[in-house]
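Running this now, will post back.
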Amino acid sequence: MLAAMDVAELVAFLRESKLAVQASVAEAGPQAAVIGFVVSDAGELFFDTSSTSRKCQNLRRDPRIALVIGWDERTVQYEGLADEPVGEELAHFKALYFERFPDGRDRERWPDIVYFRVRPSWARQSDFTGPEPMIRELSFRLPGSEHRESAPAGAETALRGSDG
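Update: finished.
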């Protein structure tokens, strides 16, 4: 069954997990890796990595990113655009991150550590635990993004076919 989802439901589900598989676009093709992440109340994801990692190099060249969060019978597919927050935004996200990943404070001292925020453009939650599968979607409008035509973040949800 295809249904709508709101930002609060998406955030609640994402907060059940600490790990995600991220995929970014490399020059030679796709690249994927497991990351630890946190999520803001607005549904933005945040993670750290090394500036020498493939994901960092990929995202600096092409900010499009896709992630899968959750395993087994409940998952979220999540697409968006990555950037590197600075100033107060960075401090806010780091506080959230260090609360969940205290070892992140040790990595903060690494000379090549970088931080990425992912602003969502689309998400789909799939739940196969009940008698009938439940698939719920939410689209966001990102500033400067033509990725999806949808309502502004936190507003009306948009549904589309189940094209995985």
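The longest strand covers residues 113-127. More later if anyone needs it.
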